[in-house]
């Protein structure tokens, strides 16, 4: 974790229940970073790129991204973040979705996703996966964003 | 064929048959007329013969008269001999005429009269010859001709002439008949020519009509064929589109259904976790303040809650398995097939090997008979056959040593692969149903979701094959897979 500023976990997840379960299990893993939850792609993109509190202008972040969003596809957000000119191209993105389609996984890694996790339906596995993700989050280094003037 | 068409064909057939019958009738009548002409020609010849015999008779009489006169003048016996000879000839001639006119009573009457006159004349002539012989040296002997004799001769000539005239009249009449017959035969001949021409024209017309109808029908058939082909192609595209739609639908639905399921299962678990402190609380309360814990509260927390959670959990787990099955099927449907040449005997032997352990446990045996080589997708055909064989192993009849046979053969351009067992069998009512998703047959004593055979059928269809079941309850089942020998690449 960065020593200067706590890394904000930005969770883009349209399902409130999933979001709640994810947050619960991350907390159970001992992660205390702030978690910001967005249910819509549009609001999430606005925050990511334009908000003064967002990662582009303020502080490091880690994105938990669901692919099935009501207003846009998660892969579109991923693509925008990982573009050559994007200020967020180094921000880690964890794709966390129900899809385990081979093509979809390949596509996400091609676009620059850092981790791809399929949500297990079985809750035991689900909880375990999220807790392990929490442990992972607690140890990874996240680069400081290039703050634009 | 339409009714009117049938009537017309029947009419044409009748007309042709009628025409040939007419031709036959005309031919027969021509023969009859020809025969008649021949008969009348014979009659004409006959009349001429009669006339000729009459003429010869006349000539003989004249010559006998000449001989008599010679004798009367010279008394030379040679004349007398000639006379007698000619008298005999006259008799013969008259017999000859008689023989030829047996058909004509008028002429016979006349001939009888002539015979009498000639006989009278000959008798008279012999008298005169006798007189001359007696008076050979008597110059005064009577040499004159008797008036009576002259009259006899005149009458005989008249009779002969009359006979000749009658024959001539007959000749005229018979010639006329012959002429009529010849004319009639010409008419019949012309008629038969007309019938022949009409028949030929009719036959040619009917043939041309048939040929034309055939050509029209052929052209229409070709048009229909082309229409059918394009209709089939169109339909195939539509079906393909519908199928793709269903695949996509199945995928999306099963996928989207998983999302809420994660919540149901997740919060059920959370609920379960939450009951733990509640149970502990109840225990503690019972110890410290038993009045607070009513039986109702205790039952709710210790029995109703865990029971509800248990049902929610088992149901959601089942739902998850079903959704996974649909997802699996739709994914199999979208997989790209890669046909290759497969040694089916080796493939089936491989499947049997993986089941060896279970077979020993169950005292069962798999017998593999030769199967023709197939060109198809390895994974798909492997899944089909292993599903079928596994089902056979799964549903053997307890207490009967299991025997599973896998065999193949070629049948009218298809490869038939059969998996036969002597297991518990399938009720005939369920033979179609078992191929539907989530449907099973018989007692539900074996684990399973009713997915295997649905999967088998979907795969068989994708490979261009079909699958059917043949079974009697308690006696075993045979699953028959019919495959094209070579899978066409899409």
UniProtKB/TrEMBL annotation, chain A:
Pfam families on file: Response_reg (PF00072)
CDD domains: REC_Rcp-like (cd17557)
Name this protein carries in UniProt: Response regulator receiver domain-containing protein
Keywords assigned: Phosphoprotein
PANTHER family: RESPONSE REGULATOR RCP1, RESPONSE REGULATOR RCP1-RELATED
Domain Response regulatory: 8-134
Recorded superkingdom: Bacteria
GO process annotations (BP): phosphorelay signal transduction system
PROSITE patterns: RESPONSE_REGULATORY
Residue positions, PTM 4-aspartylphosphate: 66
Automatic annotation (TrEMBL), chain B:
Domain Histidine kinase intervals: 252-487
A UniProt-annotated Pfam family: HATPase_c
InterPro entries: BphY/WalK/GraS-like, CHASE3, HATPase_C_sf, HATPase_dom, His_kinase_dom, HisK_dim/P_dom, HisK_dim/P_sf, Sig_transdc_His_kin-like_C
Keywords assigned: Coiled coil, Kinase, Membrane, Phosphoprotein, Transferase, Transmembrane, Transmembrane helix
UniProt-listed Gene3D superfamilies: 1.10.287.130, Histidine kinase-like ATPase, C-terminal domain
A single BP term in Gene Ontology: osmosensory signaling via phosphorelay pathway
Enzyme Commission number(s) of this protein: 2.7.13.3
Spans through the membrane: 12-34, 184-206
Protein name: histidine kinase
Native organism: Afifella marina DSM 2698
């Amino acid at each position: 974790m960065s020593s200067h500023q706590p890394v904000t976990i930005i969770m883009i997840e349209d399902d409130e229940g999933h979001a709640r379960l994810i947050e619960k299990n991350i907390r159970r893993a001992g992660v205390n970073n702030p978690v910001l939850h967005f249910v819509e792609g549009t609001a999430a993109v606005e925050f990511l790129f334009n908000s003064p509190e967002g990662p582009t202008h303020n502080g490091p972040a880690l994105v938990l991204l669901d692919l099935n969003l009501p207003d846009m596809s998660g892969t579109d957000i991923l693509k925008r973040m990982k573009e050559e000119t994007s200020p967020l191209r180094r921000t880690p993105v964890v794709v966390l979705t129900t899809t385990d389609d081979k093509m979809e996984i390949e596509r996400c890694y091609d676009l620059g996703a850092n981790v791809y996790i399929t949500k297990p339906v079985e809750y035991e596995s689900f909880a375990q996966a999220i807790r392990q993700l929490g442990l992972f989050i607690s140890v990874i280094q996240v680069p400081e964003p290039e703050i634009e003037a | 064929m339409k009714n009117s068409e049938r009537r017309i064909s029947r009419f044409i057939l009748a007309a042709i048959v009628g025409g040939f019958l007419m031709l036959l009738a005309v031919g027969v009548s021509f023969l009859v007329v020809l025969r008649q002409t021949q008969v009348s020609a014979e009659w004409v010849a006959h009349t001429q013969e009669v006339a000729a015999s009459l003429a010869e008779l006349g000539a003989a009489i004249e010559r006998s008269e000449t001989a008599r006169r010679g004798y009367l003048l010279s008394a030379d016996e040679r004349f007398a001999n000639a006379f007698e000879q000619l008298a005999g000839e006259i008799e013969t001639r008259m017999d000859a005429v008689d023989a030829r006119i047996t058909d004509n009573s008028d002429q016979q009457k006349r001939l009888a009269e002539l015979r009498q006159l000639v006989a009278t004349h000959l008798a008279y002539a012999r008298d005169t010859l006798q007189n001359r012989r007696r008076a050979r040296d008597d110059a005064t002997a009577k040499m004159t001709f008797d008036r009576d004799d002259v009259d006899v001769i005149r009458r005989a000539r008249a009779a002969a002439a009359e006979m000749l005239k009658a024959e001539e009249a007959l000749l005229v009449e018979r010639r006329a008949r012959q002429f009529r017959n010849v004319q009639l035969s010409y008419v019949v001949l012309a008629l038969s020519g007309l019938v022949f021409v009409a028949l030929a024209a009719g036959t040619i017309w009917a043939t041309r009509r048939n040929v034309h109808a055939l050509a029209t029908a052929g052209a229409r058939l070709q048009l229909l064929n082309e229409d059918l082909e394009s209709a089939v192609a169109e339909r195939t595209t539509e079906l393909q589109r519908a199928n793709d739609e269903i695949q996509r639908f199945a995928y999306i639905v099963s996928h989207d259904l998983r999302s809420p399921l994660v919540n149901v299962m997740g919060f059920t678990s959370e609920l379960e976790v939450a009951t733990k402190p509640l149970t502990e609380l109840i225990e503690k309360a019972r110890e410290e303040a038993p009045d607070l814990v009513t039986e109702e509260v205790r039952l709710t927390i210790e029995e109703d809650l865990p029971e509800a959670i248990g049902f929610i959990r088992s149901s959601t787990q089942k739902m998850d398995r079903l959704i996974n099955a649909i997802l699996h099927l739709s994914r199999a449907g979208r997989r790209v097939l890669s046909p290759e040449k497969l040694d089916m005997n080796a493939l089936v032997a491989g499947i049997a090997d993986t089941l060896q352990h279970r077979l020993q446990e169950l005292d069962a045996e798999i017998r593999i008979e030769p199967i023709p080589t197939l060109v198809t997708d390895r994974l798909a055909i492997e899944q089909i056959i292993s599903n079928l064989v596994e089902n056979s192993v799964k549903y053997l009849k307890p207490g009967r040593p299991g025997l599973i046979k896998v065999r193949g053969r070629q049948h009218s351009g298809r490869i038939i692969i059969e998996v036969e067992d002597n297991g518990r069998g399938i009720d005939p009512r369920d033979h179609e149903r078992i191929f539907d998703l989530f449907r099973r047959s018989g007692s539900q004593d074996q684990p399973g979701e009713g997915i295997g055979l649905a999967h088998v059928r979907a795969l068989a269809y994708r490979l261009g094959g079909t699958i059917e079941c043949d079974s009697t309850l308690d006696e075993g089942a045979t699953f028959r897979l019919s495959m094209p020998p070579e899978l066409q690449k899409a």
